Q: What sequence folds into this?
């Protein structure tokens, strides 16, 4: 379960002060799929990065799976990212010089598991993301859709409870976007809590139960109501 | 082990997969380390050879001076010096430079007699394995390699004609050539019987160029110097320790110039490295951001960068020093040796004896490794502490 209470995020100061999020309150139930929709600059990606503890809110609090993530020190925030959540980024954020399998194992390097166990988990995750056949191929030589699947495999490798997707179809064609939605559906069926930040209309009417939340000007609701 | 430890596996994976990123910095580092190590090896080898040579030299050398200029020394001083308390192994020498005008070069001529050879350890080491009976029986000379090469260039094969102060020519046979391993000391040296040397320098029977002796008790050195001035007012005393200091200063000075150049090169390299990690290399920033985003802590990032740098530093240092060792002690340090021996009289093919100062190498390693680590770890840390989202941008 994700609980967001009165969260604000400000950048800069004085005349350059910019409020990316204004007093956001939101709850996402365990196993729920929530779509944060809105145009660029509406604050959805910022909210996602706060849930992922990739940044800290300026005010308010965020609780994920009973853990207050908005105030975690670095070591705990890293452990939280490594165990509880899996993030899929718009630009994939893969290490281009490594192969698909090598990228997928990255989150598990400091997990305390040995290499055979890590390789087994990576294989399962690549299988799940339908990218196992490209395991030894360098990421740099993959298509956009394949990179996306590699990013999914990396996000799932440690079997997280929460999956966060930041504009996951922004760099994909329609066919690959539909394939991604299919993957999301499978993850939803598997009981994962999913939050997707997107402005892709394909997500407005998903073929499975989901909640669409509109964001604008750093607030929830079409006009910030 | 690599197949079991995920961290080691990932570390080697990054090093090999991103080798082009490291090769440039590593190549510059290897060249820098090789150059400085070569200078240190040459310097320490020459100092060792000279030290060994000086250890065999007499503690004191005295010469008579007139108006501050060295002139021939009376042989009678030998008896007076022997009488000074604490003095031993007093030996007269005929020893000086012979200038060969057509070739515009000079040789160091050393006249010895059989008893002198018995007394001087330095000469003993030079003349080891040479049949001295035959040498003393006829008017011949033993020459260093540089002298032999020079004479051959000027068409003197087995003999050389010295011009005496009276204007006569004295033809002397070349009996032996000293081995190349003695070149640092004896490259331009000619050793001949004392009588022959006296004739070439135009000295009388009761004259020598200088007198050498030892004073085994160091504490007595200053006393002995005082007493020497009672032998004759016109006396010049040269102590071995002064010669040692002069050589030490010379090589330290030349080595020091290289050290300054090294520090400048090192600072430049560190600046490049720092820039690469701090600003220019967005690749590096993004990679750190990705690792942070997927659950790596700041400590994990710094650990990875530390070990990555450690491998680079150690491997470039080892490659650099091994290359320098080969260059100096196997190839004989072509080009660089000329800087150290520049100003020598004849062209000198010095054989460098392997001598490695591990203390100096250790200092060099620290001087190289510490700024290298700082240039990588500080900017990496600065990137690691910013929000991962910002680093990945």
A:
């Amino acid at each position: 379960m994700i609980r967001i209470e009165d969260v604000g995020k400000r950048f800069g100061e004085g005349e350059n002060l910019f409020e990316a999020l204004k007093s956001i309150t939101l709850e996402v139930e365990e196993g729920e799929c929530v779509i944060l929709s809105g145009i660029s600059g509406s604050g959805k990606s910022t909210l996602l990065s706060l849930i992922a503890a990739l940044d800290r809110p300026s005010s308010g609090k965020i609780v994920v799976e009973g853990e207050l993530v908005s105030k975690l020190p670095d070591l705990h925030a890293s452990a939280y990212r490594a165990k509880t959540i899996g993030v899929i980024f718009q630009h994939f954020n893969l290490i281009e010089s490594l192969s698909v399998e090598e990228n997928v194992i990255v989150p598990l390097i400091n997990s305390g598991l040995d290499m055979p166990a890590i390789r087994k988990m990576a294989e399962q995750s690549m299988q799940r993301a339908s990218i196992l056949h490209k395991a030894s191929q360098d990421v740099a030589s993959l298509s956009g859709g394949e990179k996306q699947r590699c990013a999914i495999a990396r996000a799932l490798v440690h079997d997280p409870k929460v999956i966060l997707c930041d504009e996951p179809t922004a760099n994909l064609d329609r066919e690959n976007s539909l394939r991604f939605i299919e993957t999301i559906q499978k993850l939803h069926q598997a009981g994962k809590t999913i939050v997707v930040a997107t402005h892709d209309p394909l997500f407005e009417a998903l073929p499975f139960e989901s909640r669409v939340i509109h964001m604008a000007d750093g607030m929830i609701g079409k006009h910030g109501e | 082990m690599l197949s079991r430890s995920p961290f080691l596996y990932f570390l080697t994976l990054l090093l090999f997969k991103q080798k082009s990123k490291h090769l440039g910095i590593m190549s510059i580092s290897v060249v820098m380390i090789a150059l400085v190590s070569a200078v240190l090896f040459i310097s320490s080898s020459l100092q060792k050879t000279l030290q060994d040579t000086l250890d065999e030299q007499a503690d004191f050398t005295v010469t008579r001076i007139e108006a501050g200029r060295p002139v021939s020394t009376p042989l009678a001083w030998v008896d007076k010096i022997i009488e000074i308390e604490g003095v031993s192994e007093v030996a007269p020498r005929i020893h000086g430079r012979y200038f060969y005008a057509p070739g515009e070069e000079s040789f160091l001529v050393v006249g010895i007699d059989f008893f002198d050879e018995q007394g001087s350890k330095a000469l003993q080491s030079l003349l080891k394995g040479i049949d001295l009976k035959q040498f003393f029986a006829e008017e011949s000379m033993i020459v260093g390699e540089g002298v032999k090469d020079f004479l051959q260039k000027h068409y003197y094969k087995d003999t050389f004609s010295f011009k005496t102060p009276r204007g006569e020519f004295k033809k002397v046979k070349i009996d032996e050539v000293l081995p190349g391993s003695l070149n640092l000391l004896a490259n331009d040296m000619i050793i001949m019987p004392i009588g022959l040397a006296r004739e070439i320098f135009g000295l009388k029977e009761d004259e020598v160029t200088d007198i050498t002796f030892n004073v085994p008790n160091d504490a007595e050195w200053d006393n002995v110097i005082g007493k020497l001035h009672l032998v004759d007012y016109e006396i010049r005393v040269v102590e071995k320790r002064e010669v040692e200091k002069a050589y030490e200063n010379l090589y330290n000075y030349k080595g020091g110039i290289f050290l300054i150049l090294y520090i400048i090169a090192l600072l430049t390299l560190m600046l490049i490295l720092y820039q690469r990690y701090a600003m220019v290399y967005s690749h590096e920033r993004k990679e750190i951001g990705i690792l942070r985003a997927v659950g790596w802590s700041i400590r994990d990032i710094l650990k990875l960068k530390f070990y990555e740098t450690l491998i680079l530093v150690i491997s470039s240092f080892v490659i650099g020093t091994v290359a320098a060792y080969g260059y100096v002690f196997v190839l004989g340090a072509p080009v660089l040796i000329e800087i150290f021996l520049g100003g020598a009289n004849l062209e000198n093919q010095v054989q460098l004896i392997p001598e490695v100062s591990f203390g100096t190498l250790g200092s060099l390693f620290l001087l190289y490794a510490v700024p290298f680590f700082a240039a990588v770890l500080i900017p990496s840390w600065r990137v690691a502490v910013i929000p991962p989202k910002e680093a990945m941008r």
Observations:
- The helical segments of chain A are 44-51, 74-83, 100-105, 115-128, 144-156, 174-189.
- Chain A is about 30% helix and 25% strand.
